[in-house]
Amino acid sequence: MQTPYYTYDSTLFSRTIEAAKSEAACLPQAKIHLAVKSNSNARLIAIAAKAGLGADCVSGAEIAHCINCQMPAHRIMFAGVGKTDEEINLALDAGIGCFNVESVPELDVIQQLAVARHTIANVAFRINPDVDAHTHANITTGLEANKFGISMADMIDVIRRAQSMSNIHYLGLHFHIGSQVLDMTCFRQLSLRINQLQDQLEQAGITGTTSINVGGGLGIDYEHPELNPIPNFRDYFRAYADNLELRPGQSLHFELGRALTAQCGRLITRCVFVKQTATKQFAIVDAGFTALIRPALYQAFHKIVNLTGQAEQRPLRTYDVVGPICESSDVFATDIELHEVRRGDTLAILSAGAYGFVMSSTYNLRALPQEVVE
Ligand SMILES: *Cc1c(COP(=O)(O)O)cnc(C)c1O
Q1: Domain total for the chain?
Q2: Looking at the whole model, is its pTM more than 0.70?
């Protein structure tokens, strides 16, 4: 098989889904959706659909793809700050479960397009809760300064506007504070914020809030993927169960991406050269940030294993693992210990199932990696 390529462990993916479902049992109203942008592999989406999960989509193409993968349209939610008319029409025609609306102009366009198609659009409003996710700046989304959502001060006016529209059905509120969040107090803070907002809605006499969507963001253990292949769903769902005051009849939606997909995937790459300089030993591999951009984009850490060297029980040595691309950021790891690396060895970059293949590119005219589901 041509390297670099991704392998996905479908057994671990199913086990992860079952663990999430069983830990969510403390919230009888919970519905879990797969954030498809983290991994849009068709086989994995089909597994998630079969297990009863819904899908969180951020483009029209993701919606069409999910429907092709047997995901029931009513379980699909559509988020994003810049939905185009074509994407909105596609979603209306498909009959998706909910538009997560991020601005007044977007609401107005959905109403207009729904009128033209003689249909009703279900909408929830993404509210910016001003809760800090304490994660990397590029994946923090719930602060006042971020581009996402509607500010809390505008929430009531926007809902009133929606409730006056002929072809809009108001469902509820949507939130998403960020990604790779490991501090459960962030989810507790979000819960308390939602309680406040629900009080405000009631004081304003707004009824009809039947759905609360708390987004995703649960992080995983990139340092010890073998020890912790399944994320801490127990504390995650408990943070909501213990703090969120749902009103009677409300459903609670989760949109998990990384937590469901990251540990199921690894990127397999081959060592092209080992290069010794005055201060460093480089293992130059055939995968670059075109195959996996997280280290270059977010300074993300991924554990790396030299599969060949490990099988031969070679001694440990220190390496920088780098790709072939002419950019200084094309580095997977610095000063890590690997079983001695030789030209031609196969290395695995672990925890690469989320935001891996989906962010790959053909820069330098490099081929996209293949994906294998095992
Ligand atoms: C990216 C995203 C998610 C999933 O985030 P993870 O950190 O992968 O769980 C969920 N909801 C929305 C709106 C998103 O943009």
Answers
A1: 2
A2: yes
